[in-house]
Write a structure and sequence with these properties.
Length: about 230
């Protein structure tokens, strides 16, 4: 992975793109490469924070487990995304398990260097606050949907979001080029396998979606948009 590739991933991030050039150059210079193979753990809940990460290629899956062993999928971090700042800033343990999905390349800004940078450049703080606020908004949005929006609407919204990130336009619709085992999709929308399967089959019979080998194509996106827009 060339330095040009790393730089392009950094610039892609909305938060990083807002930082003054002289400060972003320091962040880029201080970060070091880190590689993970598919399925490799980056950290588990309770680990000490190593630093702040940028995803250059691949993706990182965040989840946590309840006392009953039930998994809750938090999010995926994609190329261009930064993560890991919370445990660095509050000096507390990691709150989630983080696992590489596919061979993944990261840039690591070590905790000590990150904190020194903030001390030397306090003008970075407003940008850090903005990044945290964006993440809080996402969390509150998910909480709102889980509590107040019915499962079929949550599922429609999630498929449309995945299509926006991973969609590939085909002659018969938009293929979500992302492996979507049904168990994973259930975790994303906080629904049971039985109920999610029933909704997907209903949409398939209506001609709204196609399902082939763990991948979903959206055929009638406007109908799916209407399902969610009701709420």
């Amino acid at each position: 992975m060339s330095s040009q590739d790393v730089n392009s991933r950094m610039i892609e991030n909305e938060w990083f793109g807002e930082i003054p050039e002289e400060l972003s150059a320091i962040l880029e210079k201080e970060a070091m490469p880190r590689s993970l193979v598919d399925g490799e753990l980056l950290h588990v809940k309770g680990d000490e924070a190593e630093g702040v990460y940028l995803v250059v290629s691949g993706r990182v899956r965040f989840s946590t487990f309840g006392l009953d062993g039930q998994e809750m999928l938090q999010t995926y971090y994609e190329p261009g995304n930064w993560f890991g700042e919370v445990s660095v800033l509050d000096d507390k343990a990691r709150m989630h398990d983080a696992v590489a999905v596919g061979n993944t390349k990261l840039q690591l800004l070590p905790k000590t260097r990150f904190l020194i940078m903030l001390e030397e450049h306090p003008e970075l703080y407003p940008y850090i606050v903005k990044m945290l606020c964006r993440k809080i908004r996402v969390i509150l949005d998910v909480y709102h949907d889980t509590v107040f929006v019915p499962l079929h609407a949550r599922l429609a919204k999630r498929l449309l979001e995945l299509a926006k990130v991973y969609g590939q336009e085909k002659s018969d619709g938009c293929l979500i080029d992302f492996p979507l085992p049904q168990d994973e999709l259930c975790l994303m929308v906080h629904g049971s396998r039985q109920r999610v399967n029933k909704i997907l089959n209903g949409w398939k019979n209506k001609g709204w979606i196609q399902i082939d080998y763990g991948k979903i194509s959206l055929i009638d996106m406007s109908s799916l948009e209407e399902v969610f827009e009701e709420y």
